[in-house]
Amino acid sequence: MKSDNRLLKKIAYPPFYYFSSIFTGIILFLFFPEYNVKYIPLALMGIVVGVLGLYILLRSSDIFKRVETTYINETPSAFVTEGLFTYSRNPMYLGALINIIGIVLFIGNIIGFFIPILFFSSINFICIPVEEKIMENTFGKVYLKYKKQVRRWF
Question: What is the C-alpha separation between 81 and 89, in angstroms, rounded?
Fold first, then answer.
């Protein structure tokens, strides 16, 4: 059982999904230029959306650093409900998703518009369930109450 748990934690490694999404977008841009859309307002909107997503991601991550708890598939030492965690149980993932949408808009590759959908699906159905189980096991009823009061994404 313990080895199964470690394997699941390795499969549910959020940075892998984030960076592979960005890498895939760049690969599509470089190797499928016939699908690139050259539309300046779209690129500018991508910059704004991407920066907003990065801000949300980093702001949420800073809260974890400040309270000195972990955020990658390990048992947390603190239960964070402040800041953006008041509105979303997963603001780091929300920020990453918004950032990826911004990058896809900036790159402008039509094929790349499936990337945020894949990222969302991976995080929502692979990573978050693992993390929620860890939170339930660590914080019990307090986490279950929070889970009922605060949405998963926003």
Answer: 8
Helices and strands (H, E) in the chain, number of each type: 6, 0
CB 56 within 8 A of CB 91: yes
**Separation between Cα atoms, residue 134 and residue 110, nearest integer Å:** 37
3 pLDDT above the threshold of 70: no
- Candidates 136, 11, 10, 27; CA nearest to 75 is 136
3-class secondary-structure state, position 109: strand
Tens of pLDDT, residue by residue over 90-129, are: 999 999 999 999 999 999 999 999 999 999 999 999 999 9
Do the Cβ atoms of 146 and 80 come closer than 8 Å?
no
DSSP for residue 68? T
Could you give the 3-state DSSP secondary structure of residue 36?
strand
Q: How far apart are CA 96 and CA 54, in angstroms?
A: 7
Q: Which residues of 110-142 are buried (b: 16+ CB within 10 A; e: fewer)?
A: ebbbebbeebbebbeeebbebbbebbeeebeee
- Is residue 126 within 8 A of residue 47, CB to CB? The reply is no
The CATH code for residues 14-149 is 1.20.120.1630
